[in-house]
Write a structure and sequence with these properties.
It contains nine helices and ten strands. An eight-stranded parallel sheet has the order 1-2-3-4-5-6-7-8. Strands 9-10 form a two-stranded antiparallel ribbon.
Length: 238
């Protein structure tokens, strides 16, 4: 089975989601409202729910929104918090508030032994440091395009990264795919995001499989088996 480890499922219609039935979806959320929809979708179509507040939405989130999201995580059986993290690239003006919000999710992840599905553009090292200081054991840093040297620490700490279909056209992401150990890689679409003309959707993880098979000099079936094992281990899939 193919697993899309980072998809904004709440942005797709029910009809669109039905077309992705051959792929196991890990649905990330952007705020309190989308967290509730992600949880509802998990109960209805069986996706893996990640609840949280995206760094891009921190400026619009009130203390009440954060409290609502934290309580939703505590009261649900969601195994994952996300999309959460830090972003110095796109929203540097809210960085201090991002750190406060991310700290709340870090504490909850540690307390309940949850996976963190993390966003970290230009804050890659800060995120890894925050994860370690919080003693968080399970995390995946999505669409990693950070320093290649940091991959060694990410792998040593037992964390994962995702490779996105953008690997076909984004050189720094391909460099990451070439440098990363296969045992630390998951697949993602980040759908329905659009990147340089690519309309990202879950079925596109199949294209990523082809690229990784070329880079890793493995058969496509072996790549599928490898990344499935990684994802099933992280998200405790059976």
């Amino acid at each position: 089975m193919l697993i899309d480890a980072h998809c904004h499922c709440h942005e797709f219609s029910d009809e669109e989601l039905a077309k992705f039935s051959e792929i196991k979806l890990v649905g990330v959320s952007d705020d309190a409202t989308s967290s509730a929809r992600t949880l509802e979708l998990s109960e209805r179509i069986g996706l893996v729910p990640c609840l949280g507040i995206h760094p891009w939405h921190v400026d619009r989130s009130t203390p009440a929104d954060l409290s609502t999201t934290l309580k939703l995580i505590e009261r649900s059986n969601a195994p994952c918090i996300g999309e959460v993290g830090l972003d110095k690239k796109f929203v540097p003006e809210t960085y201090e508030k991002q750190r406060e919000v991310f700290s709340a999710f870090l504490r909850l992840a540690k307390e309940y032994d949850l996976v963190l599905n993390v966003h970290a553009p230009d804050a890659w090292a800060d995120v890894v440091e925050a994860l370690r200081k919080a003693d968080v054991d399970k995390a995946v840093i999505h669409w990693y395009t950070g320093p290649l040297a940091l991959l060694e620490d990410i792998g040593r700490y037992g964390y994962y990264i995702t490779i996105n279909p953008a690997v076909k056209i984004q050189k720094k992401h391909r460099d990451v795919a070439e440098a990363a150990r296969p045992d630390m890689v998951l697949l993602e679409s980040d759908g329905p995001y659009e990147y340089r003309g690519l309309k990202l959707q879950p079925p596109m993880v199949k294209e990523t499989i082809k690229v990784l098979a070329e880079i890793w000099r493995m058969s496509e079936d072996d790549v599928v088996d490898r990344v499935y094992y990684n994802a099933s281990r992280l998200f405790r899939l059976t």
